[in-house]
Design goal:
Blueprint: E1 4-10, H1 26-35, E2 40-44, H2 48-60, E3 64-69, H3 77-87, E4 91-94, H4 103-120, E5 124-127, H5 137-146, E6 152-154, H6 157-163, H7 171-181, E7 184-189, H8 207-227, E8 233-238, H9 258-277
Parallel strand pairs: 1-2, 1-8, 2-3, 3-4, 4-5, 5-6, 6-7, 7-8
Helix pairs in contact: 3-4, 5-7, 7-8, 8-9
């Protein structure tokens, strides 16, 4: 069995948040994800009933899911792992919902979560995200000095907009992003500019940013293929969030179609994977 890519769609990204129209029913959202050819979904494992309903549908259709959680303490992860033991998951995506200013305050949390994950035999990836322990790129790099084998979910949109990298991105900033990606065991798909955390893939003025992220994801895939086992699976979650992530006009409606952008992103990342998978192995990072 060869290494595989699985492209998922975020259920949060299926929210419409329109003042004059209702949300799509959950079954409609899941059917859309299935019929569009996604391999699975990102599912909040906070509400057991919700997680049970969603994973039942996904399992019945041969799809996979990542279990998303937002612990503030070590013990907060325990019920999530217990739910994963019952419902399964490709991995747990952990957003550490704390904001320590000192590395020393992060260490017992990360050690505790890693110990619980090891005891449960569940893969846990720590997500890079604003307003979390991982909010700042420099602080995150210091955390990697403390935990060189820490498994990350890399959502690079937060670091580009958080650090407001100058354009074009220079080699120093590329090197810092590459170090994050060398610890990435999953990817979240959102394209940012240096001022906006989420922009449409289709607008002509955004194509430089699209190329930047495709280059980073190219590096991420190559790095992961070098580190991962021969039958491992890499997940890429399309996570184009609803307003206020999505930019809206004066009528409150979005300026682009996030669902169509997600479909385009799915095809782009699969094409990138296929191109890399068909290259000679000596082109992968060493």
């Amino acid at each position: 069995m060869a290494q595989q890519l699985r492209v998922l769609q975020s259920l949060w990204a299926m929210e419409r948040r329109l003042a004059d129209e209702g949300e799509w029913p959950l079954h409609t959202q899941l059917a859309m994800i299935r019929d569009a050819g996604f391999d699975g979904a990102g599912v909040r494992f906070i509400d057991p009933a919700f997680a049970r309903e969603v994973t039942s549908f996904l399992r019945a259709h041969g799809m996979i899911w990542q279990a998303q959680c937002y612990p503030r303490t070590v013990d907060d992860l325990k019920p999530v792992l217990e739910l994963v033991a019952r419902l399964g998951a490709d991995h747990v995506n952990l957003q550490p919902d704390v904001r320590p200013r000192r590395l020393a305050d992060c260490i017992p949390l990360l050690e505790g979560w890693r110990q619980l994950a090891a005891e449960a035999g569940v893969a846990v990836h720590v997500e890079t995200h604003r307003d979390r322990m991982t909010t700042d790129l420099f602080f995150m790099l210091d955390l990697l000095d403390c935990f060189p084998d820490l498994r990350l979910t890399a959502d690079l949109s937060h670091y580009l907009v958080g650090r407001e990298f100058a354009w074009p991105v220079d080699d120093v900033n590329h090197a810092m992003i590459h170090r994050i990606l060398d610890n990435a065991w999953g990817l979240h798909g959102r394209i940012a500019s240096r001022e906006q955390v989420q922009i449409s893939l289709g607008f002509p003025q955004h194509q430089g940013w699209v190329s930047l992220f495709m280059g980073w994801w190219d590096y991420a895939i190559r790095s992961w293929r070098k580190r991962a086992g021969p039958d491992a699976t890499l997940t890429f979650l399309c996570e184009l969030g609803p307003p206020p992530y999505a930019i809206t006009g004066p009528d409150g409606r979005e300026l682009s179609d996030r669902w169509q952008d997600a479909l385009v992103m799915k095809d782009m990342i699969r094409a990138l994977w296929d191109r890399i998978a068909n290259e000679p192995q000596d082109l992968l990072p060493r």
